[in-house]
Amino acid sequence: MNILAIGAHPDDLEISCAGTLAKMKQAGHEVVLCHASTGDKGHYVIPADELIVIRKGEAQQAGELIGCPVISLGLRDGEISSEDESVKTTFIDLIRSVQPDMVITHAPNDYMPDHVAVSKLVFDTTFTATLPAFSDRFPIAKKVPALYYMDNLSGIDFQPTIYVDVTDTFETKLRMLRKHQSQLTWLKEHDHVDILGFVETLGKMRGIQAGCTYAEGFIQHMAWTRPNAIRFPV
What we know:
This protein has helices at 12-16, 18-26, 48-65, 85-98, 113-128, 170-178, 181-190, 195-210; strands at 2-7, 30-37, 70-75, 102-106, 146-150, 162-165, 215-220. By secondary structure, the chain is an alpha/beta fold. The protein has one domain (2-220): 3-Layer(aba) Sandwich (Rossmann fold). Helix 5 (113-128) links the parallel strand 4 and strand 5 (146-150). The termini are close together. Pfam families: PIG-L (PF02585). It comes from Paenibacillus gyeongsangnamensis. This is PIG-L family deacetylase. InterPro entries: GlcNAc_PI_deacetylase-related, LmbE-like_dom_sf.
């Protein structure tokens, strides 16, 4: 299967679903990691133009740990809009270039505007990418892919419909997250959180719910035209 995971920022996938992505890659699926924004505003000290380069490198290093390509859509923090037609076209071109069978992204009720905007954009464009009148850079998407929402930060008002046991890939998840050193600093200073401990706590909580040591939770988007009978590929 072709699997596309789309986060708003370069570290979002590592926080919320990297254990599952590592398992999918191990199972032989094609997995592409994408972040919509360059993450240019996520630091108190490093200027935006320097931070873009740093965060791109961190994301590439994290993807290399599981042998996955990493794509940046080149948008800017706080400027992702689900109403911007040029942004919609960027997402449509992404979907068409990857031709995914499954897409994983943020839940609609995640905690900050960029995450929510990406969730809406993914929902919208995974459908419109199948329509020939939108963009002509790539062949139209052959199908409306299955859509899954990854856990929102801290799991508030998020009740998974699917749990993935990531006990055997949890250390890989942490290694991927540690590549984002600029964000370990930022999240500690801006949000007063040790994100490595945060991720471990949520992983243990989902693991308790799922009957294993560590788990990641997902909600399957249920709507007509989505291939809801698809088997979660891990």
